[in-house]
Design brief:
This protein has helices at 2-9, 32-36, 55-65, 256-266, and strands at residues 41-42, 46-48, 70-72, 76-78, 83-84, 88-91, 94-97, 100-101, 105-108, 111-114, 119-120, 124-127, 130-132, 138-139, 143-146, 151-156, 159-164, 171-174, 184-186, 190-200, 209-217, 222-231, 236-247, 274-285, 291-304, 328-342, 348-358, 368-380, 386-399, 407-409, 423-425, 427-438, 451-462, 471-479, 483-489, 496-502. The chain is mainly β. The chain folds into 2 domains: 2-164, no CATH class; 171-502, membrane protein fhac: a member of the omp85/tpsb transporter family (Porin, Beta Barrel).
Length: 508
């Protein structure tokens, strides 16, 4: 708690370090001793006059009216062992949180970064700033992020005043690092380099956003692009998107970075691909709740992609074929609900329900009704242990599902005793139950502390009129932050196979 307390005491310096007085930072060392004696601010030292009828203003005013929040006005790093007992108000500062906050966090014109292991028992509200969450952090309340709602913080009489900005400037948000997104590498596209930007007309009604992304795929020698125009009238957002893109149905198995590393070093690409031109209208919830509904009408003209013989360090000389799809156009409508909710202490449930239909008698070349239910629950076991449950059920409910809607599994990421994508079809069921025990006494540098894990995975894939046996793997081994290695056993076939794989948080 020592480092946190020091930052809290230094908070009052911000009155001299407002954005309009940044040269004053050079004088910090001259009065550091005086600063260390300054008491932390209380919420009553922050003045704010809410606008009539403005919901966000009312929410902020209600929080300030409690009068018991700690006020931080200096960039702060909260260590994993630190606990903030009560509400926290951050003004014009960056907070990187690895510890716990037993209350609400309000950020005005600042940035909040949640690190793995962070825990917030209340709500998070970020106004006129940046919010960077983590899939390994826990937020028990709701998250409200309004970057386009502009507020300024001004020093006043030893405290601060918060003022809404009526004339809001437009916002230019470059993706990734200066617009460059993380590159990917796979057997179809080889290297994919992308640059993107999002433009927000924050002062306009409904705050329209325009997203532009360009991609170059070296293996195909092609340029692709995405254009998204959305409007945000309040609790919902809607818009249109048009793109030429290479798509996959296996993102649920591995993320882009870990899949790229697996292919580059091991020759394992856990995804299949197809090319598509698409235009879609999308209506969805704003995402402030733990569940988000979505409705989409889409036109897609799809074609098959081939796999190329690209460089790998330790992969096989034989490249797995990219399966062909049913080339053609489809008009489809989809309803979906996604969920992301904290469950108890350090637990997290992520799920999705999808219903998508197409009718060739109305438009397009295909008729089908696709249903999908997926869920993953990470929850504590005994002590610091972790229980991992995952299930995916996906298939054609009516009609004939085209190849571009098929998915599959098999290989190190799911059933290690089988080759990658051994099981693939229009109907797929896969699930696993895993248990991990961290060994906190051991560390391996940047890899962190290892964990011992055991997992039972099972699944089947089949077409209409066919039957298939359930395949089972019993897996156990060691797991680091980015690496997993172990031994898998197929009790039916009697096969035993050792394996190693790149594995990032969020991967199966």
């Amino acid at each position: 708690m020592g480092s946190v307390e020091r930052h809290r005491q230094w908070g009052s310096v911000k009155a001299c370090l407002h954005s309009g007085h940044r040269p004053a930072r050079s004088a910090l060392s001259l009065f550091a001793a005086l600063v260390l004696l300054a008491p932390p601010l209380a919420a009553q030292d922050v003045a704010f006059q809410p606008r009539k009828g403005n919901e966000l203003d009312s929410k902020l005013a209600g929080f300030l009216a409690r009068g018991d929040a700690e006020v931080w006005t200096r960039d702060t790093v909260v260590a994993s062992e630190s606990l903030i007992s009560g509400d926290l108000l951050v003004l014009e500062a960056q907070v990187r949180l690895s510890g716990s906050v037993a209350g609400d966090i309000y950020v005005v014109d600042g940035d909040l970064f949640l690190r793995p292991g962070a825990r917030v028992t209340g709500d998070i509200v970020v106004l006129s700033g940046g919010y960077h969450g983590s899939g390994m952090a826990t937020v028990e309340g709701d998250v409200l992020w309004r970057p386009a709602e502009r507020y300024t913080v001004m020093p006043s009489g030893g405290g601060f005043e918060i003022h809404p900005v009526v004339d809001v400037p437009d916002v230019v948000d470059l993706h990734g690092l200066y617009g460059f997104e993380a590159p990917t590498y796979d057997r179809s596209s080889a290297v994919t380099a992308a640059w993107g930007v999002t433009l927000r007309a924050a002062a306009w009604a409904w705050q329209p956003t325009l997203e532009l992304v360009g991609r170059y795929r070296s293996g195909q020698g092609e340029v692709e692009g995405t254009v998204r125009q959305f409007w945000h009238p309040g609790p919902v957002e809607f818009g249109i998107e048009a793109e030429r893109i290479t798509r996959t149905n296996e993102a649920w198995i591995r993320g882009g970075v870990s899949n790229s590393l697996s292919y580059l070093f091991l020759g394992d690409d856990f995804r299949d691909y197809y090319g598509a031109d698409r235009v879609a209208f999308v209506l969805r919830g704003s995402g402030d709740r733990w569940w988000t509904p979505m409705f989409r009408v889409e036109w897609e003209d799809a074609w098959s992609r081939r796999a190329g013989d690209h460089f790998t360090f330790f992969g096989s000389d034989t490249v797995r074929e990219n399966p062909p799809i049913d080339d053609g156009a489809a008009w489809s409508a989809a309803l979906a609900v996604s969920a992301d909710r904290s469950t108890g202490e350090n637990g997290r449930l992520v799920g999705n329900v999808l219903l998508e239909g197409a009718d060739s008698t109305l438009a397009g070349d295909f008729s089908y009704l696709l249903g999908e239910v997926s869920a993953r629950w990470l929850t504590p076991g005994f002590g610091t242990h972790e229980l991992d449950l995952f299930a995916l059920v996906r298939g054609d409910l009516a009609g004939s599902l085209p190849g571009q809607r098929w998915t599959g599994f098999g290989g190190r990421a799911t059933l290690p005793t089988y080759d990658v994508m051994t099981f693939r079809g229009p109907r797929v069921v896969y699930g696993h139950v895993g248990y991990a025990i961290p060994i906190e006494a051991l560390t391996a540098g940047m890899l962190g502390a290892p964990g011992v894990f055991a997992r039972v995975g099972t699944g089947r894939a089949w077409e209409d009129g066919q039957s298939s046996d359930w395949r089972v793997n019993l897996v156990g081994g060691l797991r680091f932050w980015v690496l997993e290695g172990g031994v898998a056993w197929d009790p039916d076939a009697g096969d035993v196979r050792g394996y190693a794989i790149f594995r990032f948080p969020g991967d199966l």
